[in-house]
Design a protein that fits this description.
153 residues; mainly alpha; 80% helix
Length: 153
Amino acid sequence: MLSNRPRPLRIAAALLVVVAATTARARAASPPDATAIVEAADDSLGNGNFKEAIRQYKEADKVSGGSCVVCQLGLAKAFNGVGAHKEVLKAVEAVLRLTTDKPVLALAYNEQGLALLASADGDQGRLKQAEAAFRNVISLANPPRAHFNLGVA
């Protein structure tokens, strides 16, 4: 069918086929979009599927080169959901290294405070650390839940 067309059109048609095939292969080989993975992780977190959320946030962070603030904050929330308090503290430390955005820092400190409070088991030092974390939340964003959390700590 192409042989009945003039030579420039045959060349253009052949190039179009090659470009389309190359683009399809590039799409198939490209890494997944971190935004889509984070959205899926947020859904998992919201549905209480903490282990799946952890897997997804880790994947999104890896795709982002290890500098995804939203991923680390999501990890902190998900780790709190499964009671992995040491992991929460690691994720919060990553958030603190990666951003200076006050609302994000407030969320991170809140997760830190919750983890410290949950793991304190009467340890006065941990309770003081939790109190300090909740005071940081209040100084950064002053949400009502931070006052409640501070009262509990």
